[in-house]
From TrEMBL, chains A, B:
Transmembrane feature ranges: none
Species classification: Bacteria, Bacillati, Actinomycetota, Actinomycetes, Streptosporangiales
UniProt record, GO biological process: response to stress
UniProt-listed SUPFAM superfamilies: Winged helix' DNA-binding domain
Domain HTH marR-type: 9-141
Native source species: Actinomadura physcomitrii
UniProt GO MF annotations: DNA-binding transcription factor activity
Stored PROSITE patterns: HTH_MARR_2 (PS50995)
PANTHER family: MARR FAMILY REGULATORY PROTEIN, TRANSCRIPTIONAL REGULATOR, MARR FAMILY
Pfam families cross-referenced by the UniProt entry: MarR_2
Name under which the protein is recorded: MarR family transcriptional regulator
DNA sequence: TGATAATGATTACAGATCAGAACGATTGTC
DNA sequence: GACAATCGTTCTGATCTGTAATCATTATCA
């Protein structure tokens, strides 16, 4: 009889999920040195890309309920990385901005991102890296994923120290 | 002056994390129709690939503490998908196996996986798909990722219903 | 104008989830 | 034959989570 393997071969979808979680984990470890979690880094990036948005909008993009966004932003504000500015025309909303200190940290974050990218793609030549980048972008586009936001930002917890 | 974008361009690492979370989310939605969560599906696959292992080993591969594995396996056993068999030579350990019902469900799971793969890679031609598969496998190998296990299995929670 | 509904930020709260310690049963060591 | 180690399990305190209520402000519209 022939032994048919029930797990034939991991496909693209499985490898994406596996590698994605792996990459996210490594990145989380790395930026822990900057005292940042992935969702925090995500917010900083979002504020750099589009400053002055309301908390509700940002919470929506991050995929978390507004109630949980409050203490989340509180800590970043307490550390002087972001700023809540009252809107004169509509005094209900806060417009969130990056402080200078926040921008400085974002620069460090960019460096960390480069090092992370380099280490993760160690197995690939430069042109393979570019080819992979193109293929992934095509999928991301077609799947309707917006740049700068990803679903992994929903949770705060990922902070394991093995 | 030149406006330098603080988020230059998402790299491979970011796209992997983003697409990985996206793919995992879609898959979770899909197998919810079979009343399965990703970690449950993962265990079924692991048992098919290597039957008879102990709970501690499996918990380790899944990335969860043994204490949490117990109720996790309990439900699958209650549903008649897996079986705990006592080891005669060492009566401390349980050897976990798939039941027939479990194998049947695994077949449905494989079908779901195929459909998932197809929908996710809709943007790619067949040869692009293969090229991508090759590149991802190279990275996974070099990063020391074992087939059939991924870090996203650590948590049970992901069951949001938007 | 003025009452009512809608919106943003926040707080309150009740329930789920988590990891590690503690526990009995069994086995290896010497 | 005592003692340490291992496996499965239960217990427990702390953390995290989403929903609903609250307060201030703004829009709607008769």
């Amino acid at each position: 009889m022939t032994a048919s393997p029930p797990t034939p071969q991991p496909g693209v979808a499985f490898l994406l999920a596996q590698l994605g979680a792996h990459a996210a984990g490594l990145f989380a470890e790395r930026i822990a040195a900057l005292d940042l979690t992935p969702p925090q880094a995500g917010l900083l990036r979002m504020l750099a890309a589009a400053p002055g948005r309301s908390q509700r909008e940002l919470a929506g993009d991050l995929g978390m309920p507004p109630s949980r966004f409050v203490p989340f932003a509180d800590e970043l504000e307490k550390r002087g990385l972001i700023e809540r500015r009252r809107n004169a025309s509509d005094r209900r909303v806060y417009a969130l901005h990056l402080t200078e200190k926040g921008e400085a940290l974002l620069a460090e974050l960019a460096q960390a991102g480069m090092a992370h990218e380099h280490l993760l793609c160690e197995a690939l030549t430069a042109e393979e890296h570019d080819r992979l980048l193109g293929l992934l972008r095509r999928i991301a586009d077609q799947q309707g994923l917006r740049p700068d936001v990803h679903p992994g930002y929903r949770t705060l917890r990922p902070r394991p120290k093995p």
